[in-house]
Design brief:
- By secondary structure, this protein is α+β, with helices and mostly antiparallel strands.
- It has two domains: 201 residues; 156 residues, no CATH class.
- The protein has eleven helices and twelve strands.
- Strand 11 and strand 12 form a beta hairpin.
- Helix 5 runs parallel beside helix 10 and helix 6 packs antiparallel against helix 11.
- The radius of gyration is 25 Å and the shape is elongated.
C-alpha cells in the first residue's frame, strides 16, 4: 500500500512539473511576443475611410487612404529620403487611383457598377494618425440603386489587418460597416439589419484593437503582473489564496474599463478632446510609469487608482480610432457601443488567460525575476521609446 502511495505521489509530482514547464514556456513565449511585436504595432491600425452617397443611379465616393500605406505598396518616396513631398504624391496620382480602384467593387442588383475618377485633383487631409490621400470617385449603375453590395479588397495582399471604415448614405438611411480580411463584403438594402451588422462590425473592431493595441496591452499587463503577489519590505511574496489575486485583478480591470469608457464617450461626442499627439504621448508615459512601479513600488496598494487615472488617458486613444470616420450622431452612438463592448470582451479574454497562468507560476523565481522584474524593465524601455517617438514626432522603431 505504501509503495502504491509513493508511486501515485511521484506521478502527481511529475505531472505537476510538466505542467509548470509548459506554463513557463507559454509565459515566456507570450512575453517575447509582446515585447518583440510591440514596436511594430504600437500605433493606430491601418485604416481607410470610405464615404459613399447614393442618388438615383449615381454613387459619390470620397475615399481617404493613408499615405504611409500607399507608400508601402507603390514606393511613392522617389528620392528615398523618408519624407513624402507633395510633388512625389501628385506625380503618382494615376497609380494611386488605379491601385485604389482595383481594391473596390460596387454592385447593385447583381450588376457591377462602374467606378472611375471624377477628374477632381488629388487632395491631402490630416487625420489623427497622419496624412491621407483623398480620392474623389464616382460610381454609375445601370439602374436606379435600391440596394448596394460593397466588396473591399484594398491592401488585402500585403496587410491582413487593414480595414475599410465604411459610411454609406442610401435611400435616406445611414449605414456603417467595418470591412477587411474577416469580412470583405457587405450588402445594404434597408431590410438586412444594417444597424445590427454595423454593431457587430464595430464590436469586432474593438476586439481587434485591444489585441493589436500593444501600448494598451502592455499597460494592462504591467498592472496585472503584481496581482498574484503582495509586497513586503524584503520584496514580493506570492499570494497564498486565489481570491485576493482575483479581487485585485477585478479592481484593476474595472477601474481601467470605467475610466476609458468615460473619456471614450466624451471624446467621441466632442465634449472633451485631446490632440492625438498629446494623448498618444501620455499613453506611452502611462506604460513607463506602470512598469517602473513594479520595479520601484511607489503605489503599493490601491493600484486600481493608477488604472483609473491613466485609463482616462487611454480612452482618448481609443477615441482616435472612431474620430476620423465622421459618422452622424446616431451612428456614432452605435459605433461607440459596439467598439467599447469589443474592447471589454478583448480584455476579459486576456484576463481569463492571464490569471490562472500567473497564479500557477507566482511562487517561482521565473515569475518574480523574469516576468515581473525583467518583463517590467522591458516594458518600461519600450514605453520610453514610444514616448520619445510620439512627443518629438520621431520614427526610429519599425512601424507597421
Amino acid at each position: 500500500m505504501c509503495s502504491l502511495s509513493r508511486v501515485s505521489t511521484s506521478r502527481r509530482r511529475a505531472a505537476l512539473r510538466r505542467l509548470l514547464q509548459g506554463a513557463r514556456l507559454l509565459a515566456g513565449a507570450v512575453l517575447a511576443w509582446a515585447c518583440l511585436a510591440a514596436p511594430a504595432q504600437a500605433h493606430k491600425a491601418s485604416d481607410s475611410y470610405l464615404h459613399l452617397s447614393v442618388s438615383g443611379r449615381e454613387i459619390a465616393v470620397r475615399w481617404d487612404i493613408a499615405l504611409r500605406d500607399l507608400d508601402a505598396v507603390l514606393a511613392l518616396d522617389a528620392d528615398g529620403d523618408g519624407q513624402l513631398s507633395w510633388g512625389e504624391v501628385r506625380g503618382r496620382q494615376g497609380d494611386i487611383l488605379r491601385y485604389a480602384l482595383s481594391g473596390l467593387q460596387l454592385r447593385s442588383r447583381g450588376e457591377s457598377c462602374v467606378a472611375s475618377a471624377t477628374g477632381a485633383p488629388l487632395l491631402i487631409d490630416d487625420h489623427s494618425d497622419g496624412a491621407y490621400a483623398v480620392l474623389s470617385l464616382a460610381g454609375h449603375c445601370a439602374r436606379p440603386i435600391e440596394s448596394l453590395e460593397v466588396d473591399y479588397r484594398l491592401f488585402a495582399q500585403v496587410d491582413a489587418g487593414h480595414r475599410g471604415l465604411l459610411n454609406l448614405s442610401l435611400a435616406g438611411q445611414t449605414y456603417s460597416a467595418v470591412l477587411g480580411a474577416g469580412e470583405a463584403s457587405a450588402h445594404f438594402d434597408g431590410r438586412t439589419g444594417g444597424r445590427w451588422r454595423a454593431l457587430a462590425g464595430y464590436l469586432r473592431t474593438g476586439v481587434e484593437h485591444i489585441g493589436t493595441g500593444f501600448d494598451h496591452l502592455l499597460f494592462l499587463f504591467s498592472l496585472l503582473l503584481p496581482a498574484v503577489l503582495y509586497r513586503r519590505a524584503q520584496g514580493w511574496e506570492p499570494q497564498q489564496r486565489l481570491q485576493p489575486a482575483a479581487l485585485e485583478v477585478c479592481r484593476v480591470v474595472t477601474a481601467f474599463t470605467v475610466a476609458h469608457s468615460l473619456t471614450l464617450a466624451l471624446a467621441s461626442f466632442d465634449i472633451v478632446r485631446l490632440p492625438a499627439r498629446v494623448s498618444e504621448s501620455a499613453i506611452a508615459l502611462s506604460v513607463v510609469v506602470a512598469a517602473l512601479n513594479n520595479m520601484v513600488p511607489l503605489v503599493r496598494r490601491r493600484r486600481w487608482i493608477v488604472a483609473f487615472c491613466f485609463g482616462l488617458i487611454h480612452g482618448f486613444g481609443f477615441a482616435n480610432v472612431l474620430s476620423d470616420l465622421g459618422l452622424p450622431r446616431p451612428e456614432l452612438a452605435l459605433a461607440l457601443v459596439g467598439f467599447n463592448l469589443g474592447v471589454e470582451l478583448g480584455q476579459l479574454a486576456i484576463v481569463a488567460l492571464f490569471l490562472p497562468l500567473a497564479y500557477v507560476l507566482r511562487s517561482t523565481l521565473f515569475y518574480r525575476r523574469l516576468l515581473l522584474a525583467g518583463g517590467s524593465a522591458m516594458i518600461a524601455l519600450i514605453g520610453a521609446l514610444w514616448l520619445i517617438e510620439r512627443a518629438f514626432d520621431l520614427r526610429f522603431l519599425p512601424v507597421h
